Amino acid sequence: MSKPSILVIDDEESITSTIATFLRAKGYDLTVANDGEDGLQSVRDGGHGIIVSDIYIDRVTGLDVLDQVRRLGLDAVVILMTARGSVRTTVEAEMGGAFDYIAKPFEMRDLLSVIERAEAYLTSSEAPSELETGTEGFGNMIGFSRPMVDVYKRIARAARSDETVLIIGETGVGKELVARAIHDHGARAKAPFVPVDSGAVTGSLWESEIFGSIRGAFTGADRDRQGIIDSARGGSVFFDEIGETPLEVQPKLLRLLQEKEYRPVGSGMPKKADVRIIAATNRSLETMVRENKFREDLFYRLNVLRIDVPPLRERRSDIPFLVKRFLGEATVAGQRRVWFSPEAEHLLNQFDWPGNVRQLRSTIQRVVALAAVGQVSEETLRSFLIDPLAEEEGEPASELSEVERRQILRVLRETGGNKTKAAEILGIQRRTLYKKLARLEGQRDAETEDRG
Ligand SMILES: Nc1ncnc2c1ncn2[C@@H]1O[C@H](COP(=O)(O)OP(=O)(O)OP(=O)(O)O)[C@@H](O)[C@H]1O
Ligand SMILES: [Mg+2]
Q: Ligand 2: distance of its center to the CA of 175 in Å?
């Protein structure tokens, strides 16, 4: 196939002429525009497979170029040249659908490698955008590695009984999915599945939240209030992070499990509970029992039907299927064509995933949202793997990579500045996010936001 025609837009003639000489020598057909209006006109004229544009050309910007391409529905990819430090505009450029960007000053061979990737993208016939997202697992769960098949068997067994189930596993392994699968495959499937964040409500509130309260139970209680046990009637209650249950209410929870009875706050009359209890934890309840933070009798009562969900690194054969699913989801939502190079795929399969499936999913979502379209290299992928455990005390303060900054800023914007949420989406601790932000501020001050 012949080489695509390239349009170069920049108001600095020294730059356009250097690029033109270099690329013509490589056999490309070149068009040059030295001001914004000319540039936009050449875009409208069409026929260019690749457009290399500066991000600030007099009054016209690279974003206008992107906009024009999109509006005319042109089959062209746009590569933007940016000044270092212009974080905000590069974020916008990514959002506007730039194929990639290249920071000035750059070497000609760097530009060539971006152009070669753009060419590969333009000629790739099998763009994996129509990934089939059929089920390859059990219910909503993907993966059929040995340990997961074992989990599915236990889910099926738990679904046939009405016994309390305890689900144990590291953060992000899919404990809530397991709980829902148990509910969905059981006799209570038509009734509600109600999750409870066990640590979110404190002692006295816990009781009224879970068991409800009757009129006059406390000041302001002007009517009977339903608790979660009432609203889940006939269904299942999922006590997430059961280890966080306040010690003082643990006897009441035990009574609920043993006698299937509970008492709304302010009431002398016990009520019969018609719910199935499913609990989950990522902490070792055994250890908590030893430290007197969790009642031993409650632990034994919970530990009847137990399902251990293995961490992702112990079932790596599931990774390619999960990747395929998550890539499919993210691509459909974002309308961007992204796939991983063989080396990047290898990294996906070998990485340790301390945040397990949740981290894998959020990493892929971020890559799709923020990486350039087309093939994602190992290097790019690596920059998206924010180590949730790194940057603890004693770590030397390294510079944040451009990609990392963009990710953090983007996620912060999406969460409206909510740092707790942002940290969760990024898969890092909030404390780590604060440190990174502090460093980002420092970096920004050090750099002049030059517009070139
Ligand atoms: N086997 C799987 N197939 C598809 N998606 C999965 C699978 N396991 C987990 N996920 C996805 O990963 C994310 C985390 O899953 P989930 O919330 O169930 O984990 P968890 O163990 O409850 O985590 P935490 O302990 O942090 O609450 C969810 O988006 C879920 O849909
Ligand atoms: Mg959970």
A: 6
